[in-house]
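Work Package 3 (structural annotation) set out to generate three-dimensional models for the target panel prioritized at the project kickoff. During this period the team completed the workflow that converts sequence records into discrete structure tokens, so that structures can be stored uniformly alongside our sequence database. As a representative example, we reproduce one entry of 234 residues exactly as it appears in the project archive.
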Amino acid sequence: MEITVEARYNGPAGSGNGGYTCGLVGVLLGGPAEVTLRRPPPLATPLRAERRDGGVAVYDGDALVAEGVRAEVALDPPAPVAFADAEAASRHYLGFREHAFPTCFVCGPARAPGDGLRVFAAAVPGRDVVAAPWAPAPELAGEDGDLRPEFVWAALDCPGAFAVGFAGRGELLLGRLAARVDHAPRPRERCVVVGWPLGEEGRKLYAGTALFSDAGDLYAIARATWIEPRSAAA
């Protein structure tokens, strides 16, 4: 088996978006899964995926890039955020002023509408969450008309970083993402992505993210481990 992170789906310049890459691995496993990134995923490079011990290991040559296993994602989501409130919050997206990865496929403000996902999660007044509106583009759908799962994983990625203070820390990198997709939205369907902090330990920061329908139905949920590079933490 092979997977390829096309050049369009970058996170930091020159490497794959973590959530999208984890989603590709998650699709190989089917159902809820936890994926650990061992090194920055290379772009436009066929990566070998091997079944191993009930999971999947992904290699670039002999270098281990990612490991995935089936996993339960037991996480209580916060109350949904109304679409209008998410729109209002996103106008104050801190990434508009400063962003370590401005061309990130998911949250980069330098990506044009229709190119990047432009999921701009920002603080919701009176609550300890960030939120962003999202209406997936038709081109992200599979043959069944639903959004392809890897793009749901991608949308669940970056809001978690902003929930744990990405904008004020200068740089964070996704280390692990566990996600459960219960329902994939339809193209152009109005959705809200919510992120919230789950604590921290040294250079590791933990976040939850959830995707809700406009009506407040839970579509997907994830738990992420973010890593603050030593240079940024110093």
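The chain has two domains: 2-70, 83-233.
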